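Entry 14. Structure prediction run on the chain below.
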Amino acid sequence: MQHWDYYWQKTKTLNSFAEGEQGQGYHGEVAEFWQRIFAEFTKGAKVLDLASGNGALAVLALQSNNHLDISASDKADICPMQLFDKQSQQYKYLQRVKFYGGMPSEELRFPDENFDIVVSQFGFEYSEPEATLQQLYRVLKPGAKFVALVHHKDSFISRDCVIGLSVLPLFTKHDGLLDKAREFAKFCQQLQQVKVLSLPQQQLLKQHSDLLLANFIAVQKSVTAEQLEWFNLVAKELVSGLADWRSNSTEIIDKLTANLNFFKCRIEDQVGACWSVQQRNVVQIIAQQVGFSASSSILETKDGKFSWVFQLSK
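Output returned:
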């Protein structure tokens, strides 16, 4: 859970797509899907954003229907108001959301029959389904709905994450590129004690720099065409940290290493949470056993298959 706590507390983003264009909120077909859902509700309707992260869906709900009463819960220790100040365009919406960090979906601390709708985007599937469904049945009013977008095993997002997981070990493994970058940083720190480098020291620095660059190029050439975008994305951040040998340090590389390992953990969680058709069927049966009417479909966007649409009625 530490990798999620760190992400939500340190990353100025509303959702788990900080690395992409959706980092400050949902757009396109995804936003349109949710806008249709939120437009149905009258003034004062009570909404819960389940497994909310920093509140992307809660913000979109208020942007779509300014009269909603929004709560947001997450197992992680979320506190988005510490990240977004009054100059942020999201601030006026975030300050109206009641955030509940440290609240697992399986242990919702809300009264019975409290919400007109519970929504979730890429959150519900991370929880234990039976316990969470029982909680949802308890907190929803009679006739209320649960609507979730759930990671699909065959979506373009999931396929891309699987590719990413094949690339990240090239950096994080023993004697991988991060270890080599750390060795270079350690060498740079030794030279930083010298005010003016001698010619032999300059030559030695160039040799170490050229060797590190050759290692990067060799690994880059070894990846497939579909892995290349991921490799370049990660390498760009690492290389920027190595650019100035005078300020380079093992502390910088250690921080990059920790961040990349957290990133890897988040992607592993995401891939592990994706639903296949069989998993969808299992959860749908559990929902029906709990007492819900259940249905599901697939949300398509211009980029292809995006997610499952999982809908329950009490």
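The chain has a mean pLDDT of 90.
Filed with the rest of this week's runs.
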